[in-house]
Amino acid sequence: MSSTPSPNNSVHSNRRSNPCINWIEEAIAKRHIKYYEYKNFNNIKEISTGTYGKIYRANWKNSNKYLSLKSYFVRDNSTIKEIIHEVKLQREVDFHNNVIRFYGITVLDQDNEDEQLQKYWVVMEYADGGTLQQYLKRKFYELTWNDKFSLAYQLASAVSYLHEEGIVHRDLNSTSIMVHQNTIKLADFGVSKRIKEASKRQINFGSFPYIDPKLFSNQINKNNPTKIYTLNERSDVYSVGVLLWEISSGIPPYDGIDDDNLHWKIFQGLRENPVPDTPISYIDLYNDCWDGEPENRPTMNQVVSRLNNIIVESYKTINNYQTDDFIINVQFKPEDELSIMVDRIVNLIFKLTNEGKEPKFRNKYILDYINIYNISLKELYSWLLNNQNNSTSIFLLGYFNYTGIGTSENRNNAFELFFNASKHNHVLAQYYIGLCYKCGYGTIKNQGLAFEYFKKCANKDFAAGQLNLGYLYEHGTDVKEDLKIAVEWYEKASINGNIIASYNLGLCYKNGIGINANNKKAFELFKKSAEGEYLNGITMLGYFYKNGIGTSTNKQEAFHLYQKASYLGDETAQYNLALMYENGIGIVKDIDQGIYWYKKSSENGFQKAKERLEEISKLSNRKNVNNNNMIIIKIFLSYLFLSLIYCIVHIF
């Protein structure tokens, strides 16, 4: 239990001349601020050191609950004013769930007044996840996109709340934000200020990757007071944009870059590149937030609204793959039996497979779905092992072995389980048996048997089976080639909603395979495939727009499509995007971005990208040699000139 110190026990009763100390003691005496006796804290442990002080973790008395103690590096009386400033702001806003709670103050007894100032410690809520930076480093690979969206939304909501209360934070970075029980907690209000309040408080330029680059213009305009830029609400928006990128990537901005001029490059427009698989709407949001011109940035209310829309769309996407009589409730964990959940997961796999969603995205949807219901993969896998009494459970256990969800990938086990489930006419099991025979997964490759299993699925109007049947007819491996029949099966699968079939049928129309060439028809099919998020479809649609095939030329749209597919990891799109950057097609010429995307494409195995990088390297070396030769020539000419001058002076 805390207590209020009496005047006789006041740790600063003989220092009344200091107004800062007076303010704190008066606030404690009037119980405006809760006072904690320092001696009642135990198990005190330092957990972090920042620019302005240290943070400790401690237990209060005999409680198992942790509290945080924040000390300050006090060098003069101005710092104690900052403590008071932070305490005042913290008390105003800490009832918001995403703001760290302020509990009170504790004081360490000291004889020297300077030491007294230094030993005022703030007592706060403890965040068990550490700073956001520490949390992401430790937990990033466990986070789904829904988890990342949630963190981003909490952050934006908290900053929006500050702005509504008339407060600008001014020092938002991944070390000034805490995480407790997977919940964002804003902290470090030491440099925050009232929006209308004039302030001369110093900014921590150690965190400049998060600071509004407009502030760096002050070094240019330092002799013109009318052009001095002050950090404001839109500066917080910039910082939030950088943090949204950090949440998506798991690493601090510009991590590992050692460049004394980095802040000027940021001022001139340098930004981090999106990580693969980042949703385009999320990329667009943080791009808008970190726009170089403050007036182009959204307000925090708009950021919150757009994040809310992203989250809603994310759940809608998953919801679209559920059975018609099932609606997701994202707020509550359902109490359904695991057997029902197994049925729903298999229904999701059915729709994702039938529509042609690529495996890496398919698995993401499945994991996100499982995560929404907070289902333990270990528990689910164990249940499946013990409940192999129907074809659905047998298939799902096979699928988990096939993809490595909840266990190590084991294609041999997967094949056996699919085979057992297929005996009960389970259409998904029959399809995956076909894939195993087609590719030699867990069994010997056998195109003839693959054909038979795909035919069973195709005759049941399963689009993925129709797609693969068309593929086998087109390529004629162990099956008599028949391009017209291949087109017929592609067309059936496309009508049934398979985006890969739409792409393959588009290629047939483009190249006149099994049907008369028709670029307009090909364009429409590639567009349909791209709208379904098939990477090859997106890239091919970009190619058609760039070259005006089957449609009007639109290089900006081509750039946008290549960019979208590049972010999602398509190596061909990355190469084409690099070409556009290198040559300034549909975008301002940027050789650095070109090289960046050539490298990405090369890393993904695209040979042309590797060759282009080698060519650029040779050209660069040749240019350097030429530059060196020019320097040598200039030095030689300078030497001749000086020699001539010397001769003239001494002869005449």
Automatic annotation (TrEMBL):
Superkingdom per UniProt: Eukaryota
Keywords: Membrane, Transmembrane, Transmembrane helix
GO molecular function terms attached to this record: ATP binding; protein serine/threonine kinase activity
Record flagged with keyword Metal-binding: no
Membrane spanning stretches: 630-649
InterPro entries, per database record: Kinase-like_dom_sf, Prot_kinase_dom, Sel1-like, Ser-Thr/Tyr_kinase_cat_dom, Ser/Thr_Kinases-Pseudokinases, TPR-like_helical_dom_sf
Residues covered by the Protein kinase domain: 41-311
Name this protein carries in UniProt: Kinase-like domain-containing protein
Organism: Rhizophagus irregularis (strain DAOM 181602 / DAOM 197198 / MUCL 43194)
